[in-house]
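#data-curation
PF: Archiving a pair of folding outputs for the training set. Convention for this channel: one message per protein, sequence first, structure tokens after, nothing in between. First:
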Amino acid sequence: MTDHTPETASGPIALAALESSGAGWWRVLDTDTAWWSPTMFDLFGLPRDNGVPTVEDLYRLYHPDDARMAASSFLKLFKAEEPVTLRYRAVHPSGEVRQHLTWGRRQSADADGNRWVVGMVMDVTEHVDDARLIEGERAFRFVADHTSDMVVRHRMGVGLTYVSPASRAVLGYSPSEMMGKAPADLVAPEDVVRIRGLLAERIARREAVSSEGYEYRGLHKNGHQVWLEANPRLVINGAGEMTEIVDVVRDISARKQAEAELHAARIEAEAASRAKSEFLANMSHELRTPLTSILGFSRLIGAGGGLSEGDRGYLDLIRSAGETLLTVVNDILDFSKLEAGALTLDPEPFSIAALGEGATALLREQAEGKGLELTCEVADDVRLTGDVTRLRQVLLNLLSNAVKFTDAGAVRLVLSAEDGGDGSTVLVASVTDTGCGLDPAQIDQMFDRFTQADGSVSRKFGGTGLGLAISRRLMDIMGGEIGAASDGATGSNFWFRVPLTLSADEAPTASEASRDSIGRSLRVLLAEDNPANRTLVAALLGAMDVALDMVENGEEAVLAASTTAYDLILMDMQMPVMDGPAAARAIRALGDATPIVALTANILPEQMEQCRSAGMQGHVAKPIDPRALMSALSEYARPAQEKAAAA
């Protein structure tokens, strides 16, 4: 800015008189032409030989909170004919804040036609008696001195200009020890760059106040690090520069410690959950693998004929014991899945008549063996969409309990569909028996886990006491309800209601279709390391038009699939050398799209997802049910000639 010294009538004598009053005088024509008296430089804490500051530099000399007001008032001087008076705060380069009172007025045009603005500045710091300023400062000091958070003020280029007494508790320093320090000296080096970046972004947005703070590690006087939380208020001058930071800093070390402990506990819990899942998967495999042979061969021997009545009785006892053990294993695994929230629903269209008839068919032999009449009544057969597998599980639990606890008479299943009133269709199931009945006072607790009517029940009839608890949890997941009623003498009635949706699919699903015969010649590869299971599958498929190749591990399965075209691959999950999922991925990597069905004792959700992600299409659970195996062949097997034609 050009320094344009004014010419006065009395020359240097008049200027000296003005200066002796302690006032600073200034004269401005435009943004490039101005003059300051020597005292003006003193008033702003600048060397007298600096030259008149530029407009941008002048903004930096105003207190950030006053810069905009001062700029606005200065502009008025170039438009108004009346004088303008303003009080503002000036900030010296040392950080000292002074109170200024300025007066200015636009003059008439001079001989050259220029209209100068002239003014006077006086330092009134010693004369300010503003009760609001004094009271505000007192309030600030009182709050800062009595809060547990550390309050600081940091002047750019100067350092900390105020530190509250809480600094002793937060960082171990007294306020006097921190005065003048650069805040970066008290911050962990690895956090300094990040904080500077955050502040730079706020300055660029001219964001003095932010709703989001940040966390960082402070350096305690004793040498250790302390977790701190800050959300500073930035003081930005008219030139868009940060001149001061006012911050409230909180010690969050305890919270961070709690978060760390919670994180460690979560990791530990997740590890325990994984260990539990692995244990259940292994136990499932170890229990189901021998049960596959027990139940499979007992069915084959029984179907073969040629047994004496006594031998057939012994065989029935073996099969019954195996089925009981399988029920116990299934209950424990299902309940574990429900407890972990790992059970998901798989809705599909189904016929309520097929659901009821299928459930009663599975228990008819057991009921007839006790001389009981087992019936299924369907008011109106409709097709609904829901998790038919889980619905069947609940029905089988209610029906098997009814058959188990009824010595004479009948067990009656009634299914119907009702309008839910909200666009849904409610499936209503009722199972009534003529058994010993229930104590009405004990009905509610029967749906709790590990609970039966009384201790003698488990001794007389066996069971885990989980069946009804699982049924209730399944109803909860499906949004339904389940209950029971009894007079304690003439039998019991168990029921459930579950909202489902009507199905637009009128055709029976693959799971409902009859699959007793495949109706075509197939070539199947079986990968199974257990010799008994290989023999069982071979026996089950022996009566069908199936060419069966067998291998003992996944590596052999990959080799066989690469050299022979198969219609279906039956893959055990757990095998030596290479397991089932790895083998399935290797086969898919060869570009082979042959359907792969897992033969698995691991029926937990994570194992089923592992099957799907490896490229398998379905699974047959162990112990192998011949009907499930036939269904898999019918649903997934595709003759090689059909695949070639499709390609």
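PF: Second:
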Amino acid sequence: MLKRTAHAAITGTLAIGTMAALTCTATADSGGSTGRSVVRTDKGAVRGTVTSDVRTFQGIPYAAPPTGERRWAPTAPAKKWQGVKDATEPGSGCPQTGLVPPAGPASDNEDCLFVNVTTPRAEPTRPRPVMVYLHGGDHTDGEGAMHGAKRLAAQGDVVVVTVNYRLGALGYLAHPGLEKSTRRGESGNYGFLDQQAALRWVRHNASAFGGDPGNVTLFGESAGSHSTCAHLVAPSSAGLFDRVISQSGPCTSDDGKTDREAALRQGRETAAALEKKPGVKGWRKAPVEHLIHPFGQGPRYSPVYGGELLPLTPEQAFATGRFNKVPVLQGTNRDEMRSMVYGMELAKKQATGDPGATIDTADHRARLEEEFGKKKAATVLERYPVHAYDDSPALALAAPLTDALYAKPAIETGRALARHVPTYSYEFADKGTPWYADPMYPKPGFPAGAGHLFELPYLFELDDYEELDVAQRGLSDAMIRIWTDFARTGKASWKPTTPSAPNTQSLASGPGGIHPVDFAEDHQYAFWKSLG
């Protein structure tokens, strides 16, 4: 239970204008010649917000509401609208509890399939690269609008699109009753189909916002990263993007994927809870709240592999070269699992009622045995002794979990990809990263380091984080440059990964800054490879 709760603790129409204003692809309005606030999409015109450096358009429908008979159905096109739709506020996030920052707000509104577009205010001299972001949140929580993209767009001179997609059971439930109405393995992949629809929307509408529909980078963090992996291997995602950035979700890890048989078993268990409304027709009428679990406390959901939609896992696809071959920038954070260990600590405080409770040696050993089994855990304890980590069981636990669950698959993902496509690897390693500002989640009793998702405030504006200091703002500027240069060219400024060498670049502020590291040595890859 501690493991599940730990994961949870980290991973919450105004019609105006005239018909004449709708005749241009992007229509000038009160923003002036360098900041058009009205843009015409393929479904109708939208009015956004113009500031000194960017234009933002929020809550644009990219698909029909997945309500009623469209619940657990493939994504349907949005309807056209008349007049000018207000796009100055975000649309609703998809149904979720919003329990844990940085997850999205609590929502029970299934009318949630929106994109948000941020673009530099100035008119481009040539079409700008487009970056489409898929949020994290364990495929259970989160939303696009919480990731403010003003700095990324303005400093990088790119168009940024953030996406809402169906979550939890509404997005990833597989069930034999749903299989009957599908042909390509859509059951269990409705959130994934939403993402494909959003990418098609970008191809059709990028030029209206000054973007280049022929240069689209798909990027995501954690669950969003695992989604980018699914698009890399999905035959039907071919041609929808031109580059991929994968953040803290290595494609060949055991996380972020479910095989169809396991997903169907989980679906039967979920359906049993809806027995008062039997059958697919009854489930589609069930109240949304019956389908939403507190973040991390219900079934875990992810893209479902097996079937025509996702016939091969990333491991299988990379080994055979049967995937969508585009340049990839991929990486992890140096201390990924410190975030999860903090979640364990928080769960222990809640379970014991002791606000001073911390991870002790018994918790440390139990978690290693849970992950690796007793025999291998004993070997890991010898390799990662507590005294080597300032006598902190929490830090001594986080280190092997990071190395085994993130670093090892990151190396193997890079090597597998590098046999086929240009691949660049990074490690986010800033030591004094900002912590959540929300007083509900106090700082841990150990240094958080570069934990899971802690790179996000260096790329986005996030309200639940403390401010970056001067040195960190410098790193933020450098990371935005790296991300957007890759989106522009498909290249990074350091050596690409090869099948024999990770060639990983460390991203940190302060002394040393950005520099190459021996990632395999730092994370004891040879040990984990030998452990099996």
